[in-house]
Amino acid sequence: VPMVAPGNVQVHVINSTLAKVHWDPVPLKTVRGHLQGYKVYYWKVQSLSRRSRRHVEKKILTFRGNKTFGMLPGLEPYSSYKLNVRVVNGKGEGPASPDKVFKTPEGVPSSPSFLKITNPTLDSLTLEWGLPTHPNGVLTSYILKFQPINNTHELGPLVEIRIPANESSLILKNLNYSTRYKFYFNAQTSVGSGSQITEEAVTIMDE
C-alpha cells in the first residue's frame, strides 16, 4: 500500500453546505503501485446549535487519478466537521493525513415543526408552535403573516408580525368574528427566512 499521506491539506468553506478541499500530491515513488486517486474521509463532529453528539457516520468521496482538490457537497449548516485525505493504489489506501477541522456557517432554518391554532373566541385565536427540526444556526425571530379569507376565497389585507425567537405561543387579538384566517409562519436566522408552514382557522360566530 502507499507509504505516505498527502500533505498541506486545506479546506475552503464556500457556503453553509459546500466546501472545497485541496492537498499536495504524494511523490509517485511513495505510491508503490498504480496511482488510482485520493479518498477524502469526512464526518460531522457536532452541530453548533445543538450540543448533542450522536454516532458519527464517516463519509468517503473518491477523486480519481492525480487530482489535488475536490468538492464536499451536502454538508449541514452551522456544524463542525473533520476530514483527512489518503492516497489509493491497486492494493489499498495509504495512511491518513492529520485530521483537519472546519466549520460551516449558519444557513436558513427548516420550517417550524408544527403550528397549532386553538381557543377560538369572537375576536382572538391562540397560536402555538414548535422549534424548527434543523435550526441551521441561531434563531433570531419568527415571522407571522396572516390575512382573512372571505366566502368567495378572496384574500384580505396581509398583516405581518415579528415574534422573538424565545417565544412559543401568541394570542392574536382584535380579529373579526366568524372569519376564516390564513396563517403563514416561518423562522429566521441571521442569514434569512426559512421555509414556511401554513394553517387556517376560524374565529367563532357568537358566544
Explain what you see.
- InterPro entries: FN3_dom, FN3_sf, Ig-like_fold, Neural/epithelial_adhesion.
- It comes from Tyrannus savana.
- This protein is mainly β and 207 residues long.
- It is 0% helix and 47% strand.
- The protein has strands at 7-15, 18-24, 37-47, 59-64, 69-72, 79-88, 100-103, 115-118, 125-129, 141-149, 159-164, 169-172, 180-189, 192-193, 197-202.
- The strands form 4 sheets. Strands 10, 11, 13, 14 and 15 form a 5-stranded antiparallel β-sheet that branches.
- A hairpin with a 2-residue loop joins strand 1 (7-15) and strand 2 (18-24).
- The mean pLDDT is 95.
Structural class: mainly beta
Q: How many individual β-strands? A: 15
Mean pLDDT level: 95
Order of helices and strands: EEEEEEEEEEEEEEE
Instruction: State which percent range the strand residues make up.
Output: over 45%
> What is the straight-line distance between the termini?
81 Å
Supply Rg. Answer: 26 Å
Q: What's the name of the CATH homologous superfamily of the largest domain?
A: Immunoglobulins
According to CATH, what is the topology of the largest domain?
Answer: Immunoglobulin-like
| Multimer state | single chain
Keywords: Disulfide bond, Immunoglobulin domain, Repeat
Pfam families: fn3
Domain Fibronectin type-III: 5-107, 111-207
Protein name: NRCAM protein
